[in-house]
Amino acid sequence: MNDKFEHIRPYSDTEAIKAIHDLFDNQVFIKSLSFLKDLYNVQELVKTAKESKTILDFQMGFSSKVYSYFIQKSSTGIHYSGIENIDPSKAYLYIANHRDIILDSSSLQNYMFENKMAGARSAIGDNLVTSPIFVELARINNMMLVLRSSTIHEKIANLHLLSEYIHHSIFEENQSVWIAQRSGRTKDGCDLTQQGLIKMFAMAQKEDSLETLKSLNITPVTISYEYESCDQLKARELALSENGEYVKKPGEDFKSIVQGVLGYKGEIRLHIGNPINEKLNTIDRSLNNNDQLYAVCKLVDQQIYQDYHLFKNNYIAFDFQENSKEFEHLYTKKEKTDFLSYLAKQAKVEDVSEEKMMHYLLLIYSNPVRTKFGKPITENFNIE
């Protein structure tokens, strides 16, 4: 492995075996796994983990069990679709909408494992893995670190490095990559691809941007939650950001991770879309580079909107917020009453009025209806 990727790449299989043994000999870490005991024999899980010979062994024998635990405890189940859209022998760049810090990428991995596929290397911000144990877990689980930085010079250098590593993974190692369509989760229900992200993908090659992007086999992945992950935290953040940039307190990201995996999400849907290679051929080559990249963003967004699964909660929120009856045939009066009661409970926080919280909670659930059907979006914060 090229040493220049040392600080961002996942572990190799050889490195992972040593890291797994070190981690699973740590009694503090073993004690932290006690929450699994109502579904699994923890000692058996630890034994299976330590017997892993590859990262894939570890993911399928240990990580997938932890994922299944969270799905069983916090949802009514997950429905997968779209595996037929990809070729197991090829590497893809999966660009995904981002609603939950952990479960979004984990759900794709689990779908691929169920279909006897190797999964994808997942990108995660280094701000989210702040302890040595979290760093080890990330790198053992085939995750690559996205380095956050404070200066412009560092940011540009880190983006170039990430772009090179994505190309290295796909072209040199035939390993797929999962990355969110934007930095930070979608907060307002509008899934929008950042143009800077698409630009970053093309940084590693000096040739034509569209040809470079086509070679990466970009494939949109869409995840939909019946009950939005961390909806209360997101609505509060939107409300407080009205008065300026929202500054997170220490430990807030960790709180979002925990609430994301444990909070009730109802039904979950994940769909692997079609690679956009053919659609890239439709972009006008006479456009300047920025306009071409913007067109690529729109192609990704359109497929995510198309593949997003709307639940009754989304239709209820839209009709209620718009004082509309457009979708009332899709839900019952009781379902409407129950969901609005749920939102009313989520709207109770100490530092934001219930009225303002309700407004943003409704936006979180109603905006996917607007994007799906091309309806006007009057507000779009999508804060980091």
Topology overview:
Blueprint: H1 13-24, H2 27-32, H3 42-50, H4 55-74, E1 77-81, E2 93-96, H5 103-114, E3 120-125, H6 132-140, E4 143-146, H7 152-172, E5 176-180, H8 195-202, H9 209-215, E6 218-225, H10 231-240, H11 252-262, E7 267-272, H12 277-280, H13 289-307, H14 312-322, H15 333-346, H16 354-373
Parallel strand pairs: 1-7, 2-5, 2-6, 3-4, 3-5
Antiparallel strand pairs: 6-7
Helix pairs in contact: 1-6, 3-4, 8-9, 10-16, 14-15, 14-16
Beta content comes to 5-15%
- Per CATH, the architecture of the domain at 75-229 and 265-307 is 3-Layer(aba) Sandwich
By DSSP, the count of extended strands is 7
Structural class, by secondary structure, is: alpha/beta
- The outline comes out as globular
CATH superfamily of the domain at 75-229 and 265-307: Glycerol-3-phosphate (1)-acyltransferase
CATH class membership of the domain at 75-229 and 265-307? Alpha Beta
How big is the Rg? 21 Å
The unreliable regions are none
